[in-house]
UniProtKB/TrEMBL annotation:
Species the sequence originates in: Streptosporangium amethystogenes subsp. fukuiense
Membrane-topology descriptor: Lipid-anchor
Family the UniProt entry places it in: Belongs to the BMP lipoprotein family.
Protein name per its UniProtKB record: BMP family ABC transporter substrate-binding protein
Biased composition, class Low complexity, residue ranges: 34-45
Pfam families: Bmp
Subcellular location: Cell membrane
Transmembrane regions listed in the UniProt entry: none
Keyword Signal belongs to the record: yes
Region (Disordered): 34-59
C-alpha cells in the first residue's frame, strides 16, 4: 500500500521481454526476474554526489528517454499500484517517452530486477513502493551510473546522493479518512466501523490506529473492528473478512487493500455498508461504489518527479515530504458529502496542515 507506510505487492512474457532487452514498454506481474549479467564499466564522468543529473531527461544520452518501473504489487489492481504505472504511461505518452514496467516483483528479487532495467539503458528507475528498497544498492553500481532513482520513502530508507525520496505521513491522511467517515457515521447515527487489510505489519497497524482516532474525534463512542487477512491481494480472504465484519453490524468499512479492494467493496455495497478507497479517487466509480476517496496515490507523487525530470530539474539526494493541508496530496474527499460535511472536512485538513492539530498525539490518544 502507501508512499510513507507502503501503502502495501507467471508468465514467460516478461522473461522474453527482458532477455530481448526490448526498449518498448513491457508489462508483467511475473514474480521472477532474469539474473543480471555482470555490470558494464561505468563512465567516470557519470558519477554524482547528488544534485541535478546532467542531460535530463535523456540522462544516458542515447537519444531517447526510457523510464523503468518496478512494483511489488499487482499493476492491474485498479488502485494504489496501478496508479503508479498509469501515471507513468500517461506522462510518457505525452512526452514521447518509453515505459518499461514490471509488477509483482518479489522483494528478494528487487536488486536483480533493478540491474536488469539499467542494462536496458533506462534513464530512471522508479520503485512503486518501499518494499523494494533492496534494489537501491544498484544505484551505486556501474550498470546504473547514468540513471536517476525515484524511491517512495519509509522511516527505514537511508537517503543517499544517488536517489530521490518521496514520502508522506500515514497518520495525517488516515486520521483525515477516519474524520470523514466519522462525519457520515454521526449523521447516520452509526457507531461501528470496520478495517480490513493484509498482513499485520507496522504500516497496517499504524493506518488502523489513525483511522480509529479520526472516527473518534467525531463519534467518541465509536468502535473499530480490524481484521488482518494476511494478504492485500487475496479476494477470497478479503470477502471472508468483510462478511464477518458485516455480520457484526459495522456500517462503514475501509478495505485497506491492494488487488482485493474491489471484492471487499462490492460485498459492502451489497449490504449497504459505506466504503473508502485506499489511495485513489474513485468517487465516479459505480461498480463498486465508494463513499469516501482517500487520496495518497503514488502516481500523484510520481507525476511531480516526472515533471521535474522533463524540465531538467530533478535532483538526487533530496527528499520531498508531501503534507496534508499544504500540498495537493494527500487529501480526502467525501464523494457525495453534504455542504456541512465538506466544510468540516476542509477545515480539519487545513488544521492539520497548519499544525493546529497534532496528528501524532491524536492517534496516540484516540487510536489505541
Amino acid at each position: 500500500m502507501a508512499a510513507y507506510y507502503r501503502r502495501g505487492r507467471a508468465t514467460a512474457a516478461l522473461t522474453a521481454c527482458l532477455s530481448a532487452l526490448a526498449l518498448a514498454g513491457c508489462a508483467s506481474n511475473d514474480a521472477t526476474a532474469p539474473q543480471a549479467s555482470a555490470p558494464a564499466p561505468a563512465d567516470a564522468s557519470a558519477k554524482t554526489e547528488g544534485g541535478v543529473l546532467p542531460g535530463q531527461p535523456d540522462i544516458n544520452g542515447d537519444g531517447k528517454v526510457v523510464i523503468g518501473v518496478l512494483s511489488p504489487g499487482d499493476i492491474n489492481d485498479k488502485g494504489y499500484y496501478q496508479s503508479f504505472v498509469d501515471t507513468a504511461e500517461a506522462f510518457a505518452k505525452e512526452k514521447g517517452w518509453t515505459i518499461i514496467k514490471r509488477g509483482s516483483v518479489n522483494t528478494s528479487d528487487a536488486l536483480n530486477a533493478a540491474r536488469a532495467l539499467c542494462q536496458q539503458k533506462v534513464d530512471m528507475v522508479a520503485l512503486g513502493a518501499s518494499e523494494l528498497r533492496d534494489a537501491i544498492p544498484a544505484s551505486e553500481e556501474p550498470v546504473c551510473a547514468k540513471t536517476a532513482w525515484y524511491v517512495p520513502s519509509a522511516d527505514n530508507i537511508l537517503q543517499t546522493p544517488k536517489i530521490m525520496l518521496s514520502t508522506d505521513r500515514a497518520d495525517q491522511s488516515m486520521l483525515a479518512a477516519g474524520y470523514a467517515a466519522g462525519l457520515i457515521m454521526k449523521d447516520n447515527g452509526d457507531t461501528k466501523a470496520g478495517f480490513v487489510t493484509g498482513p499485520e505489519a507496522d504500516f497496517t497497524v499504524t493506518a488502523s490506529a489513525a483511522f480509529k482516532a479520526g472516527i473518534r474525534l467525531v463519534v467518541p463512542e465509536a468502535t473499530l473492528t480490524t481484521t488482518y487477512s494476511g494478504d492485500l491481494n487475496d479476494s477470497a480472504k478479503a470477502k471472508e473478512a468483510t462478511q464477518a465484519q458485516i455480520s457484526q453490524g459495522i456500517k462503514v468499512i475501509y478495505p485497506y487493500l491492494g488487488g482485493a479492494t474491489d471484492a471487499s467493496a462490492e460485498l459492502a455495497n451489497a449490504n449497504g455498508v459505506l466504503t473508502l478507497t485506499p489511495g485513489t479517487d474513485r468517487c465516479d466509480s459505480t461498480k463498486p461504489k465508494f463513499d469516501i476517496s482517500v487520496l495518497f496515490s503514488p502516481g500523484d507523487y510520481f507525476k511531480a518527479a516526472l515533471e521535474e525530470l522533463a524540465a531538467a530539474k530533478l535532483q538526487m539526494g533530496v527528499e520531498k515530504v508531501w503534507t496534508l493541508g499544504v500540498d495537493p496530496f494527500p487529501t480526502v474527499r467525501i464523494c457525495n458529502g453534504t455542504p456541512e460535511q465538506n466544510e468540516k472536512l476542509k477545515a480539519f485538513i487545513a488544521d492539520v496542515g497548519s499544525k493546529k492539530i497534532d496528528t501524532t498525539e491524536t492517534v496516540k490518544r484516540l487510536g489505541s
